[in-house]
Amino acid sequence: MSAVVSAPVNHWAIRPLTAADVDSLLHIQTQAYGVQFCESRAVFARRLAAGHQCSLGVERPGESGLLAYAAAYWSAVGHITALNGDFDPPPPQAAPALYLHDISVLPALAGQKVAHALVLRLMELARSRAVAHMALVAVQGSSRFWQRYGFAEQKVTSPIEQQHLDSYGAGALYMTRRL
To answer: Where, by residue number, does the polypeptide cross the bilayer (predicted)?
Structure first.
């Protein structure tokens, strides 16, 4: 994983996630999502151990525990990670993309632009590696949020990728953005 320099954002700092962050990440996930979108400790431990992950966390300097996170990895356009799926390495010769699997912020920080800071940092990270695309699955009616960042729905043509998309339930949309 490329090093991401920790930089203050208001009164927090953004840094790469590590395996030591799993418990804190799960706490945020439990606070922010309904039961149907909570993923297991084992899944997140494998994801954070993957060499191609580029996940970020937000913390207050000098305090323990995360305030927010963005689970992301280097992937390929058209590849969708299923709910509870591993961060598979990108297929060879596919158009590279930064896949944003999950972004979650503690409810107490709502409205403080924490998610905005994470999205901008991931865009910066992708551009620094000359990756021209980002992709994600929008759930729980979040597609309008993602449209503000230039993401648009992309039709899924692969039956396997459609199964992965369907794992998120009705209304889930695969979205991409060109950087």
So the answer is: none
The dihedral built from the CA positions of residue 163, 175, 52 and 57, taken in this order, carries a sign that is negative
Identify the CATH number of the domain in which residue 107 sits.
3.40.630.30
Give the number of other Cβ atoms within 10 Å of residue 168's Cβ: 19
DSSP code for 91: P
The crossing angle, in degrees rounded to 10, of helices 41-49 and 22-32 is 130
The one-digit pLDDT tens for each residue of the chain (179 residues) are 444 444 444 588 999 999 899 999 988 988 877 666 678 889 999 999 999 999 999 998 888 889 999 999 999 999 999 999 999 888 777 889 999 999 999 988 888 899 999 999 999 999 999 999 999 999 988 999 999 999 999 999 999 999 999 999 999 999 999 99
Is the whole-model pTM more than 0.85? yes
For residue 54, being part of any structural domain is answered with: yes
Q: Which residues pair with 56 in a beta bridge?
A: 16, 70
Its domain, for residue 128, covers 7-75+82-136
